From TrEMBL:
Main location per the UniProt record: membrane
Organism: Albula glossodonta (roundjaw bonefish)
Lineage top rank: taxon: Eukaryota
Keyword Signal: yes
Any single Gene Ontology cellular-component annotation: external side of plasma membrane
Record lineage: Eukaryota, Metazoa, Chordata, Craniata, Vertebrata
Transmembrane segments: 255-276
UniProt membrane topology term: Single-pass type I membrane protein
Keywords for the protein's UniProt record, in alphabetical order: Cell membrane, Disulfide bond, Glycoprotein, Immunoglobulin domain, Membrane, Receptor, Signal, Transmembrane, Transmembrane helix
Alphabetical GO biological process terms: cell surface receptor signaling pathway; cellular response to lipopolysaccharide; immune response; negative regulation of T cell proliferation; positive regulation of T cell proliferation; T cell costimulation
Stretch forming the signal peptide: 1-19
Name the UniProt record assigns to this protein: Ig-like domain-containing protein
């Protein structure tokens, strides 16, 4: 009986302590720095814990720091409301000692970057956390073109463009020719901010055309200097100008020459073989005749003439 009373007291006291809304009992544990990628889903991870007992969430609010209007709000007994369908709570369980209260941003935009507040009220206490989000965007595969577009001749002045859009923060564009020479210093880079707060890069490289250097490559790098994508461009020379050509063309001509040499050698070999065989059989034949004529006893003069005829 004493034991039971003591147990009752214990349960009561802990409930009481937690219900006293001692903030230290209920706490939000969030990842304070978050990174999102444009167009993808971003999860701002947070969990609510109560050290001593099971709690029930009375209300949960996620909002932009410094703004009153919640992006999403859950309150007990009411329907969840959100300002945009992109903003969601992942958890559907509202009681426990460790509750996931993460905030999901779908199709992350550049403008989602900033500070967020998570405000939690439970039957056992409340807490608040500030979370920051940075959003980066990957550049699309660069697109290339040239002016003039085609019928280029040796020594012509040609400008090649390499444009990469949809990235953030500002990246770089590097230029290389077919043997890997770095032409980045000779190129000119400009950037333009688009409506959705992303950056488009425009790079322009002007050169004196040479028909032995027809392939140019540009690669787009993020602000950490990591390559995100690259593209290759082949200058369209006037047809007869393509002598030395690209490495690919070189390989093709080499292959054609090799095949021709082999076929040529085979034909010559066969011809020689046929000639030798003919010559041999002829010699055997006349030799045979010689013998027969001699045996019959014809004059040497006659066999000589016959030989000539053959
Ligand atoms: C790249 O941008 C330049 C300058 O705006 C433009 O002249 C060129 O046509 C663009 N090239 C491609 C492939 O979009
Ligand atoms: C190419 O040149 C640029 C500008 O000088 C430099 O930043 C870059 O590191 C070089 N890239 C390579 C692969 O050498």
């Amino acid at each position: 009986m004493v034991c039971f009373i003591w147990l009752l007291f214990l349960v009561f006291s802990t409930t009481f302590v937690c219900a006293e809304s001692d903030d230290k009992l209920v706490s939000l544990n969030c990842q304070s720095e978050n990174h999102g990628v444009f167009g993808q889903n971003t999860l701002l991870k947070c969990s609510a814990t109560c050290k001593t007992q099971e709690m029930e969430i009375v209300s949960l609010v996620w909002r932009r720091a410094g703004q009153r209007k919640p992006l999403v709000i859950h309150s007990k007994g009411r329907e969840e409301s959100r300002t945009e369908d992109r903003f969601q709570l992942t958890q559907k369980q509202w009681t426990g000692t460790d509750i996931d209260v993460s905030f999901l941003i779908k199709h992350t935009k550049r403008t989602d970057e900033g500070q967020y507040e998570c405000i939690l009220v439970t039957d056992s206490g409340e807490d608040k956390a500030v979370i920051s989000l940075k959003v980066t965007a990957n550049y699309a595969k660069p697109e290339m073109n040239s002016i003039p577009e085609k019928d280029i001749k040796d020594d012509d002045k040609v400008t090649i463009f390499c444009n990469a859009s949809g990235g953030f923060p500002k990246g770089m564009i590097h230029w290389f020719d077919q043997i890997g020479t770095n032409w980045t210093r000779s190129a000119e880079l400009t950037e333009v901010e688009t409506q959705d707060k992303l950056i488009s890069l425009f790079s322009k490289f002007t050169l004196r055309a040479s028909s032995s250097f027809t392939v140019y490559k540009c690669s787009v790098l993020n602000n950490k200097g990591e390559e995100e994508d690259s593209a290759e461009f082949i200058l369209q020379f006037k047809q007869q100008q393509l002598g030395t050509g690209t490495p690919e063309d070189d390989k093709n001509t080499k292959a054609i020459v090799a095949v021709s040499v082999v076929i040529g050698a085979l034909v010559v070999g066969l011809l020689v073989l046929v000639l030798v065989r003919q010559w041999r059989s002829r010699r055997e034949y006349t030799g045979h005749f010689h013998l027969e004529f001699a045996q019959i006893g014809l004059s040497d003069c006659f066999t000589e003439k016959l030989h000539l005829l053959w």
